Amino acid sequence: MEVITIESQAYKELTKKINMIAKFVDLMQAKADDESEDGWVDTYEVCTFLKVSEKTLQRLRVAKVIAYSKIGGKIFFRISEIKRLMDENIIRRNEENYQDLIKNHRFHVEQRRYIKTDK
C-alpha cells in the first residue's frame, strides 16, 4: 500500500472542490428532472391519457389556442401547454389524467436513456 501525504490546506481545498462538483451534479439532476416534467408529448399520448380526440387537438391548433411543434410530420405538445389548457378549462380533465400523462412521459424518457446506454 502506498501512502500519500498532503498539507491540510491542500486537503481542505480538494474537499471543497469535490463538494462543489457534487452540488453541481445535484443541480444538473434537478434541472433535468424539471425539464422532463415539461417535456414534449405527441398527439397519441395526449389523446390517450386526457381522453380527447385528435380532431379536438386539431381544432385547438387551427384556432391557435395551443402551441405545438411539427417534426417530421408528427405533432408534439409541451406538457406545460397541456396543463395550461386544463387550468383554463379548455380541456376538462381531472388531475389524475394529467398525472398519468406525466408518468407515461417519464417512463418513455427513462426507456430512451436506458436504450442509449446499452449501445
Q: Mean pLDDT, as a whole number?
A: 80
Question: Rounded to an integer, what's the Rg over CA atoms?
Answer: 22 Å
Q: Name the helicity range.
A: 55-70%
**Topology pattern, helix = H, strand = E:** HEHHEEHH
Q: Which structural class should the secondary elements be placed in?
A: mainly alpha
**Oligomeric category:** single chain
N- to C-terminal separation?
Answer: 37 Å
Strand content: 5-15%
- Specify the CATH class of the domain at 39-118: Mainly Alpha
> How can the largest sheet be summarized?
3 strands, antiparallel
Give a count of the beta strands, DSSP E runs of length 2 or more. Answer: 3
Envelope shape: elongated
Count of separate DSSP helical elements:
5
Q: Which sequence of strands runs across the widest sheet?
A: 1-3-2
Flag low-confidence runs.
Answer: none
Can you characterise this structure?
This protein is mainly alpha-helical and 119 residues long. The protein has a domain at 39-118: Multidrug-efflux Transporter Regulator, Chain: A, Domain 2. The chain has five helices and three strands. It has helices at 8-37, 43-50, 54-62, 79-87, 95-118, and strands at residues 40-42, 69-71, 74-78. It has a three-stranded antiparallel sheet with strand order 1-3-2. α2 runs antiparallel to α5 (95-118). The chain is elongated, with a radius of gyration of 22 Å.
